[in-house]
């Protein structure tokens, strides 16, 4: 692996859940960070603690518009990740993935710099291969309610590989599986944050369908470690590489664990299953293990209490309604 010297890293989506942890890590490693975000789902609260850090800059900008700045590396994370948010304005979601990718790739091309793409397990759609390996092409509905995200991310991968093939751009494409942890937005809509906030506020836990669908949950620190390692690999490593925790749980199991850990008396409320909701998801991380010398260290049993502690503290200090951002 290359050594990882001090660099100016552009992080798009840096005020979001994963992006803010990545900014923290890069600053801790001694780098300069330019955080570019339009604050659609990210918040200033996520990066407020970095305000006085002289190596940290924030730029309010929408990546669907061109951006002319100087940097040494780009980590492209800008894109709403929760189904309720990426479905709010699906056209903007596709634009963010596709126009956003074109702009950051154009920027990387002009500067001749390395660029990372936060792709997703959603490129596999509702998978017919289990666990998912990188050579699986996926099972994606091109015209459904998730398509703006899934197809946008698939097209972004295509753009990354075409810039790599056509102009020799150095790319790193990671397919990220469900990740959770502190700084998820309390109204984010994703299952881990929903269940925790519902349990802590005594509201019913909303289970879509019978709760037998599965997901594999990765703690955010493990993901950030993998991203940093991937960025430091030789240029021959382009990905795609799956990044996630292979522990697989049903949604019903997750609800039970959250109830047990919070001691909540919340009931379970069944809601209809959204269309195209993937039935099973688990990453095969063999390639990540071999290429990055990485595997997740934080189990769900360790990560959930840390996340619960974060939300408990947040709700005590500010109350659910008082937290700014997506509702
Ligand atoms: P998030 O919604 O918390 O963060 C996304 C960030 O991008 C937010 O700060 C948002 O304001 C910003 N953003 C959205 N559209 C933008 C635009 N047009 N211009 C500039 N900024 C914009 O989500 P997250 O969980 O932190 O996800 C970060 C990235 O990782 C996303 O690209 C997502 O697709 C990918 N990912 C995340 C997961 C996960 O489980 N967290 C899984 C797979 C992939
Ligand atoms: N771009 C940008 N910043 C740069 C260079 C390019 O935002 O520093 C954008 C610009 O909008 C451009 C796109 O990236 O249209 C793609 O750039 P590329 O050089 O690949 O193509 P072209 O300029 O021919 O459209
Ligand atoms: N889900 C649920 N209740 C919720 C939110 C989500 O049962 O309040 C389900 C959802 O239908 C899906 C799984 O939990 O089957 C994971 O959903 P999430 O939105 O977190 O992520 P994604 O579907 O993108 O993996």
Task: Pick out its properties.
binds nicotinamide-adenine-dinucleotide, 13 strands, two-stranded parallel sheet, alpha/beta, 327 residues, disordered C terminus, binds uridine-5'-diphosphate, 9 helices
Structural description of this entry:
- With 327 residues, the chain is an alpha/beta fold.
- Helices cover 37% and strands 17% of the residues.
- It has nine helices and 13 strands.
- The chain has helices at residues 17-28, 83-86, 90-111, 147-167, 191-201, 220-231, 251-262, 286-292, 300-318; strands spanning 8-12, 32-37, 56-60, 73-76, 114-120, 171-176, 179-180, 205-208, 214-216, 218-219, 241-243, 248-250, 268-271.
- β5, α4 and β6 (171-176) form a beta-alpha-beta unit.
- α5 packs parallel to α7 (251-262) and α5 (191-201) crosses α9 (300-318).
- The longest helix is centred in the N-terminal third of the chain and has 22 residues, at 90-111.
- Residues 322-327 have low confidence and may be disordered.
């Amino acid at each position: 692996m290359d050594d990882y010297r001090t660099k100016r890293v552009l992080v798009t989506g840096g005020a979001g859940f994963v992006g803010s942890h990545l900014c923290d890590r890069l600053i801790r490693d001694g780098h300069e960070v330019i955080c570019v975000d339009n604050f659609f789902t990210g918040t200033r609260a996520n990066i407020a603690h970095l305000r006085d850090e002289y190596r940290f800059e924030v730029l309010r900008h929408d990546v669907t518009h061109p951006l002319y700045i100087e940097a040494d590396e780009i980590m492209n994370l800008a894109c709403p990740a929760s189904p309720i948010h990426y479905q709010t304005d699906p056209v903007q979601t596709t634009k963010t993935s596709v126009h956003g990718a074109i702009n950051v790739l154009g920027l990387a091309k002009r500067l001749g710099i390395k660029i990372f793409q936060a792709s997703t397990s959603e490129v596999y759609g509702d998978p017919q291969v289990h666990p998912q390996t990188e050579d699986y092409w996926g099972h994606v509905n091109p015209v459904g309610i998730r398509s703006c995200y899934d197809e946008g991310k698939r097209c972004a991968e295509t753009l990354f590989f075409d810039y790599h093939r056509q102009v020799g751009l150095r790319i790193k494409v990671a397919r990220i599986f469900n990740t959770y942890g502190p700084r998820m937005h309390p109204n984010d809509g994703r299952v881990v944050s929903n269940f925790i906030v519902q349990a802590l506020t005594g509201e019913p836990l909303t289970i879509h369908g019978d709760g037998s669908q599965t997901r594999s949950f990765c703690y955010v620190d493990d993901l950030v470690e993998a991203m940093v390692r991937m960025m430091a690999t030789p240029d021959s490593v382009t990905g795609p590489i799956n990044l996630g925790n292979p522990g697989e749980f049903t949604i019903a199991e997750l609800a039970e664990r959250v109830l047990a850990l919070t001691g909540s008396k919340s009931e379970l409320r069944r809601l209809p299953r959204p269309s195209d909701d993937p039935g099973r998801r688990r990453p095969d991380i063999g390639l990540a293990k071999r290429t990055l010398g990485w595997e997740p260290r934080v189990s769900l049993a360790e990560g959930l209490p840390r996340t619960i502690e974060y939300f408990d503290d947040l709700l005590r200090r500010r109350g659910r309604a008082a937290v700014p951002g997506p509702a």
